[in-house]
Amino acid sequence: MEILTTGEMEQADRLAIAAGAPGFALMLHAGQAVADAATDLAGQGPILVAAGCGNNGGDGFVAATELAARGHDVSVILLCGRDSLKGDAALAAKGWKGRVLPCDLSALGSPALIIDALFGAGLNRPVTGDPQAMIEAINANGAPVLSVDLPSGINGTTGAIMGVAVRATETVTFFRKKPAHLLLPGRIHCGRVRVADIGISDVVLDKIRPATFENIPDYWQGAFPVPRIDGHKYARGHAVIVSGDLTSTGAARLSARGALRAGAGLVSVLSPDDALGANTASLTAVMVRRMNGAAGFAEILTDRRLNACVIGPGAGVGEETRALVLTALAAKPALVLDADALTSFADLPARLFEAIKETGNTDIILTPHEGEFRRLFSEMSNKHPLRSKLERVRAAAGRSGAIVLLKGPDTVVASPDGRATIAANAPPWLATAGSGDVLSGMIGGLLAQGVPAFDAACIGVWMHGEAGHEAGPGLIAEDLPEVLPAVLRRLYDRFGIDY
Ligand SMILES: NC(=O)C1=CN([C@@H]2O[C@H](COP(=O)(O)OP(=O)(O)OC[C@H]3O[C@@H](n4cnc5c(N)ncnc54)[C@H](O)[C@@H]3O)[C@@H](O)[C@H]2O)[C@@H](O)CC1
Ligand SMILES: [K+]
Asked: Quick one: which residues bind K(+) (predicted)?
């Protein structure tokens, strides 16, 4: 499902209006959708609408009018004088026949529900003064809160808190989600998110051409790999995972098991001499192969059947790992660079990015967590400290020439071609030692099956999040590959694939 910035949403409104949908009709639909959600939340109790002076407040007036018509006890507090309302908001306020209370915090009372219609997409500066006091009072009131379009104080495009922001129980937004409904901290302030149809036709998207999508199966269903009945394991690729030395081999083994469970036909751990014993003793379905430094690695990769490679988990930081990465880039298998493979280039990011661009290989994925990202893209992060996660990852993809996957509760995947996805399905207990190693392996396993890199990254992230739910609280990284069959089974059911 597409995600629209507030600018793109404005364009959607304009295109819908130009195609014959009156702006006020859109507001009426929006207000009705808010009223529907409010009825579910408030039951029969009194409802307070806190309205701002723009069209978000207009939606609030429409909802108030609708709810009063349905027999609810509704009152409205307005941030400004009624006379200063303009356009559709003024029209909406005219329809409200009840009292409008001045912006007095004591008027909040003890409603069964507060509808937050202070600011939506038009928030364009930090919240201070009366609106700030109002938002703080709403948060302190204790009543459930239904936010209109966005929790007031949240920037719709970045998800940032502009000084202070409403913490909603539920948010009703219109036509499509905005980045703030998925990116933190915005997502936390939204509560549940409902997307309401307000009469804007999907046709407007042909003109807007949004490049950001929610990372859900509908988005990548077409790229999801399904083993063929007449296929064999060699048709599902051979992923290789580079092991660290004797003191750090576990990460590569976790990664390898992730690759195998994600469906790679064959998986090999490439092991330095000193770690051969440890690796062979702890692996069965995953194969182990001796690898002597970068020269040995280059020789192994001349076998083109080894079509996907993961470097980073437990690899160690320094020149040796840098040499392995540059060797893999030159050999051009589909490639996941994770953890130490990224940190090894913290002082020389340009060398990595140039090597990536020189290969012309578009199947390269960098999978940093926030710390690794800051180290690798420090120049860019320092220059633009206020960019949202989405903007930062997009810029990093452009700068590096690779697909960049920035991990977190709102994992963003961005491609140098501009596409990006945001995932919102990761449970908090997924942030545990070794979890990222499994993720990089899963993506390697998908690459081995021939899934294009951007899709492989998105599918890997989503399945990893689902595996987190499947394993539940208390999970450790070892659990993640083991619950993948359950996740895959549900996906097969959802896609109607026989098995
Ligand atoms: N454009 C449309 O056709 C539609 C818009 N809709 C609603 O309209 C909203 C957007 O309306 P607007 O563009 O009027 O914007 P808002 O209603 O979100 O806010 C704009 C008003 O708030 C003021 N403002 C912004 N930041 C402030 C701050 N920090 N402190 C104090 N005042 C501040 C602005 O000066 C302006 O008066 C959407 O979020 C949605 O709720 C819906 O009615 C659907 C249709
Ligand atoms: K709002």
From this structure: 56, 116, 152
Distance 192 CA to ligand 2 centre (A): 14
Three-state DSSP class for 173? strand
Residue 105 is predicted with a pLDDT of 87
**Looking at the chain, how many residues does it have?**
499
Question: Would you say 58 is a known binding-site residue?
Answer: yes
Sign of CA dihedral 104, 109, 115, 121: positive
Shared domain check, 285 and 342: yes
* Domain ranges, residue 170: 2-210
Rounded distance between C-alpha atoms, residue 57 and residue 51, angstroms: 4
- The answer on whether 230 is annotated among ligand-binding residues is no
Per-residue pLDDT of 54-69, as tens digits, reads 999 999 999 999 999 9
Ligand nearest to C-alpha 30: 1
Neighbours of 145 (CB within 10 A): 26
Q: What is the pLDDT of residues 127-166, one digit of tens each?
A: 999 999 999 999 999 999 999 999 999 999 999 999 999 9
Atom 33, ligand 1: residue with shortest CA distance: 123
Which of 56, 154, 193 gets mutated to test ligand 1 (max ligand atoms within 8 A of its CB)? 56
The rounded distance, in Å, linking the Cα atoms of 442 and 488 is 12
Distances (CA, A) of 444 to 71, 346, 396: 58, 23, 21
Phi, psi of 417, deg, nearest 5: -80, 5
Query: Counting Cβ atoms within 10 Å, is residue 357 exposed (0-12), middle (13-18) or buried (19+)?
Result: middle
Q: Would the annotation count 18 as a binding residue?
A: no
Identify the domain boundary among 189, 210, 231: 210
Instruction: Point out the ligand nearest to the CA of residue 147.
Output: 2
Asked if residue 263 and residue 202 are part of one domain, the reply reads: no
